[in-house]
C-alpha cells in the first residue's frame, strides 16, 4: 500500500500556493518581479544555469524579468545594445573602472568631471596601482598628445556638470582611440536624448555610456540608480562579470519607479530644457553676473561643439557672479531663494541651487568669482524668474 501524504498545514500551504498568474494578462506597465532566490524546475536546470547571456534566471542579483526590462529600455534609450544596472550613478562609474582597469594601467579623467569620479581615482584606484591624470576637456589636441599605451580608459563628460564647458566629443574620442584606449562617456546630462553617444559622426561612437538614472530617467528626486551601456557583446560580458563579482544589485521597487517614469522622460527633459534656456537668457541680461554658462547660449564655452552634436540641453546652467561680490554675498543670495532649494543632484520636480568655489572645480579656473549652479525643476518658469529677481536684493544686503 502506498502511503497517502497528509494534508499540509496552513503554514506550508501559505507558502506553496497553487495560484498561477493567467497567461494573456496585459497592462501598460510591466509586472514587477522580486527575487533573491530563483527556483529551478529540477536539478539539471539548476546545473545548466547561464547568467551570461541573460537567457535564463539564476539569482536575483543576476537579473529578473523586471531588471531585464529596464536594461533593455535603457539600452534602447541610449542607442546601445546591452545595459547593466547598478545602485547609483557613481556605481556606474566605479563598475566601469573596476571592470576595465588593472594595476599598471592609467585612466584619464576630464579636469571638470563629476568630482567623485576624480576622488575614486585618487583613492581606491591609486591604491590598486592604477594611475590617473586629469586632462583639459577643451583641448582635444593636448589629450591626443598625452595618451600613452598605458592609457586604457578615457572618461568624457559633456558638459562638465558644474562649469558647463561642452567639449569636442568626437575629437576627444579620436584622441583616446589613437593609442587604443577605451572611451567611457558620462551620459547623465544628455540622458540619451540630447545626442547619441554611440553614433557621434561617421560611425564614431564611445565604448561605454555610464548614466546616473537618479537624474532625468527617475525625475522624482527619490531613486538612486545607475546604468552602464555598451554595444560590444565582449565588453558587456566584462562589465557583467565584474558586476556579478562586485554584487552591485538594484532593488525591484526602484526599478519599478524607473519603469514608471521613463515614458514621460522626453516631455520632462524638453520642459526642463525650455525653462533652463529661458532663465539662463534672463540671467544674461543681469548686471550682477560676469558670465552665464549654458552650452546652448552662444558665448558659453564649447557652444559650437554643443551645436554640432546636440539638439537639446538638460535644464542645468551656472552663472558666475561679478568679482565685486564676495562669496558671502553670493551665499546670501542663495539663502534668499525660496523656490530653488539648496541641494545636490538635479532633474527632479523641484528646482535646485548650489554655490561652488571655482578654484575647487578646475586646476586652472577660467573665471574668477563665485559660481552658482541652477537645476530647473518643473515649476512655472515665470515663478522661478520672480524668485531669482527677489533674491538678488540679498546680494547687496
Ligand atoms: C549625479 C551624477 C552622477 C552620480 O549619480 P548618483 O546616482 O548620484 O551616484 C554621476 N555623474 C554625473 C554627471 C552626475 O550628475
Would you summarize the structure shown here?
The protein has about 400 residues and is of the alpha/beta class. The chain is built from 14 helices and 12 strands.
What report would you give on this structure?
The protein is α/β, with parallel strands linked by helices and 397 residues long. The chain folds into 2 domains: 221 residues, Type I PLP-dependent aspartate aminotransferase-like (Major domain) (Aspartate Aminotransferase, domain 2, 3-Layer(aba) Sandwich); 132 residues, Aspartate Aminotransferase, domain 1. 36% of the residues lie in helices and 15% in strands. The chain is built from 14 helices and 12 strands. The strands form 2 sheets. The chain has a 7-stranded mixed sheet with strand order 1-7-6-5-4-2-3, with helices on both faces. Strand 2, helix 5 and strand 3 form a beta-alpha-beta unit. Helix 4 runs parallel beside helix 5 and helix 6 runs parallel beside helix 7. The longest helix has 20 residues. The protein is globular. The termini are far apart. Bound molecules: pyridoxal-5'-phosphate. The site of pyridoxal-5'-phosphate has 13 residues, from helix 4.
Structural class: alpha/beta
Q: Mean pLDDT score, rounded? A: 94
Percent helix range: 25-40%
Tell me the CATH topology of the largest domain: Aspartate Aminotransferase, domain 2
Helices, by number, come to: 14
**Which strand order do you get reading across the main beta sheet?**
1-7-6-5-4-2-3
Strands, count: 12
Low-confidence stretches: none
Q: How much strand?
A: 15-25%
Distance between the termini: 96 Å
The CATH class name of the largest domain reads Alpha Beta
Rg, rounded, reads 24 Å
Amino acid at each position: 500500500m502506498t502511503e497517502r501524504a497528509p494534508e499540509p498545514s496552513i503554514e506550508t500551504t501559505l507558502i506553496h500556493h497553487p495560484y498561477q498568474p493567467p497567461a494573456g494578462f496585459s497592462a501598460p506597465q510591466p509586472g514587477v518581479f522580486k527575487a533573491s532566490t530563483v527556483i529551478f524546475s529540477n536539478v539539471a536546470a539548476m546545473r545548466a544555469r547561464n547568467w551570461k547571456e541573460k537567457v535564463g534566471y539564476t539569482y536575483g542579483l543576476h537579473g529578473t524579468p523586471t531588471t531585464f526590462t529596464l536594461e533593455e529600455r535603457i539600452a534602447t534609450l541610449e542607442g546601445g545594445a546591452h545595459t547593466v544596472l547598478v545602485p547609483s550613478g557613481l556605481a556606474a562609474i566605479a563598475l566601469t573602472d573596476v571592470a576595465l582597469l588593472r594595476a599598471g594601467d592609467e585612466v584619464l579623467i576630464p579636469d571638470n568631471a563629476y568630482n567623485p569620479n576624480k576622488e575614486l581615482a585618487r583613492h581606491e584606484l591609486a591604491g590598486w596601482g592604477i594611475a590617473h591624470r586629469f586632462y583639459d576637456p577643451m583641448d582635444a589636441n593636448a589629450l591626443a598628445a598625452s595618451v600613452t599605451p598605458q592609457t586604457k580608459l578615457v572618461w568624457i563628460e559633456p558638459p562638465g556638470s558644474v562649469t558647463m564647458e561642452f567639449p569636442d566629443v568626437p575629437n576627444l574620442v579620436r584622441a583616446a582611440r589613437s593609442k587604443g584606449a577605451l572611451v567611457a562617456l558620462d551620459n547623465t546630462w544628455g540622458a540619451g536624448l540630447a545626442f547619441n553617444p554611440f553614433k557621434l559622426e561617421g560611425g564614431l561612437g564611445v565604448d561605454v555610456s555610464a548614466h546616473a538614472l537618479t537624474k532625468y530617467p527617475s525625475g522624482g528626486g527619490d531613486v538612486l540608480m545607475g546604468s552602464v551601456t555598451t554595444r560590444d557583446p565582449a565588453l558587456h560580458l566584462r562589465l557583467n562579470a565584474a558586476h556579478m563579482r562586485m554584487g552591485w544589485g538594484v532593488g525591484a521597487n526602484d526599478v519599478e519607479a524607473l519603469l514608471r517614469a521613463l515614458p514621460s522622460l522626453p516631455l520632462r527633459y524638453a520642459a526642463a530644457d525650455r525653462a533652463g534656456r529661458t532663465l539662463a537668457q534672463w540671467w544674461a541680461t543681469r548686471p550682477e553676473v560676469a558670465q552665464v554658462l549654458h552650452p546652448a547660449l552662444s558665448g558659453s564655452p564649447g557652444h559650437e561643439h554643443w551645436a554640432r552634436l546636440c539638439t537639446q540641453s538638460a535644464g542645468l546652467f551656472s552663472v558666475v557672479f561679478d568679482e565685486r561680490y564676495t562669496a558671502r554675498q553670493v551665499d546670501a543670495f542663495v539663502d534668499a531663494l525660496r523656490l530653488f532649494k539648496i541641494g545636490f543632484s538635479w532633474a527632479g520636480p523641484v528646482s535646485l541651487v548650489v554655490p561652488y568655489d571655482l578654484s575647487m572645480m578646475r586646476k586652472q579656473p577660467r573665471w574668477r568669482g563665485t559660481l552658482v549652479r541652477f537645476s530647473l525643476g518643473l515649476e512655472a518658469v515665470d515663478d522661478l524668474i520672480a524668485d531669482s529677481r527677489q533674491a538678488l536684493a540679498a546680494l547687496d544686503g
